[in-house]
Design goal:
The chain has one domain: MFS general substrate transporter like domains (Growth Hormone, Chain: A). The protein is 76% helix and 0% strand. The termini are far apart. The N terminus is likely disordered.
């Protein structure tokens, strides 16, 4: 008899399993963000100009988005644990490639592959939603997302400290070793789940368009998160430049700054509980509103400007993470058999993040932090306006 029986709906996730899922998600998704605070160290070493440096971050995110589209839907077709292990093995090879190459084109290519191969987290999260009972699904997803978001937020300070003391290449070697350990953990602990979907891969991909057309809530939540994530990536790609150039912070000091931003990860479990209690609409409204206002501390007295930037980071992280979990809780309720594909479509909002990070260097170089404030505030404001418009239409339809 197999030590890992197939997962079935209604299976109970223990607290230990939720914590394990959270750790794995955080460790894997961190791969996408290690390069973000150290692009100024990487770029000259591999022959990239300062204006091209942010391509490292944006290509990693684009690779992640491509993985979401082409790999994550397979979670509705293939055995989930095997799919996660295979993608993690590719991540190990990609991270080692980043650690040892000194060619700009090769480094950009492996950056794309690092993102592409880090999507196993987006197979693991729908699996957890599948295992969790309906009444606690938001709390379970929120708890796992808390681990994922801690991975995102802690990746930057860890990367800065490692790069400061051992060089930037050491960070990718360490990440590859961690992925090797994670692949063993996945193999030994994650329950098997063989979906009952019988379509071909081509039919599976074609069904993405059908789901997108049929689910207006999916389209809306993806748009909101794309705008929010664009601001998130813009801020965290530009703020190390501002801290290093205008405030004289070292890589280790920038790491401490980024560590403060990790406080925002507490939003995930809070959002899950709010969604379970039926407060998705008001929580979404507040998340987008406060994200729009989060850059205002930049206008305080210059003496306290670093504190103002830290406040922006905490508030922005909190709002972005809350909006993400609220969106996931909403889309997982749409169709249980299509959760991997719904998650893939929702999480392609990562393209918003790729856009935010890709313009970060250019925005900062041409207009300084003021331009970052203006552009960063505009994205969540756009999401808020769309949200209010959709809410008004929904109210009129039910009147």
């Amino acid at each position: 008899m197999s030590a890992h029986p197939p997962a079935s709906p209604g299976s109970t996730l223990t607290r230990g399993m939720v914590l394990l899922f959270a750790f794995c998600c955080g460790a894997i998704v961190a791969n996408i963000y290690y390069a973000q605070p150290i692009i100024e160290l990487i770029a000259p070493d591999v022959g990239l100009s300062s204006t091209m440096a942010s391509l490292i971050v944006s290509l990693t995110q684009i690779g992640y988005a491509l993985g979401l589209f082409f790999l994550v839907p397979l979670g509705d077709l293939l055995e989930n644990r095997r799919l996660m292990i295979l993608t993690t093995v590719v991540a190990i090879a990609s991270l080692l490639g980043a650690a040892f190459t000194d060619q700009p084109n090769v480094f950009l290519l492996v950056s794309l592959l690092v993102g592409f191969s880090s999507v196993s987290v987006q197979v693991l999260i729908p699996l957890a939603a599948h295992l969790a009972p309906e009444e606690s699904r938001g709390r379970v997803v929120g708890g796992i997302m808390g681990g994922l978001l801690l991975g995102i937020l802690l990746a930057r300070p860890v990367s800065s400290v490692v790069a400061d003391h051992f060089g930037w290449r050491a960070m990718f070697i360490i990440a590859a070793a961690l992925m090797a350990a994670i692949s063993i953990v996945l193999a030994l602990t994650v329950p098997k789940r063989q979906p009952d979907h019988s379509a071909s891969y081509g039919q599976l991909l074609a069904s993405l368009g059908t789901l997108l057309r049929q689910q207006p809530q999916l389209r809306q939540r993806a748009f909101y998160q794309a705008c929010m994530f664009a601001t998130f990536s813009l801020f965290w790609t530009a703020v190390p430049l501002e801290l290093a150039r205008n405030h004289g912070l070292s890589q280790s000091e920038i790491a401490l700054f980024a560590l403060v931003g990790a406080i925002g990860a507490i939003a995930a479990p809070i959002a899950g509980r709010l969604a379970d209690a039926g407060h998705t609409r008001i929580a979404s409204l507040l998340a987008m509103l406060f994200a729009s206002l989060s850059f205002l501390p930049a206008f305080i007295h210059p003496i306290y400007s670093v504190i103002g930037l830290a406040v922006t980071g905490v508030v922005l992280d909190f709002c972005v993470q809350m909006n993400m979990v609220l969106g996931q809780r909403t889309i997982y309720a749409l169709d249980a058999k299509s959760r991997s594909r719904l998650n893939a479509l929702y999480m392609t909002s990562i393209f918003g993040g790729a856009f935010g990070s890709s313009i970060a260097s250019a925005v900062y170089e041409h207009g300084g932090w003021l331009w970052v404030v203006i552009v960063g505030s505009a994205f969540p404001l756009l999401a808020l306006l769309r949200f209010l418009s959709a809410s008004q239409k929904a109210s009129l339809a039910t009147a």
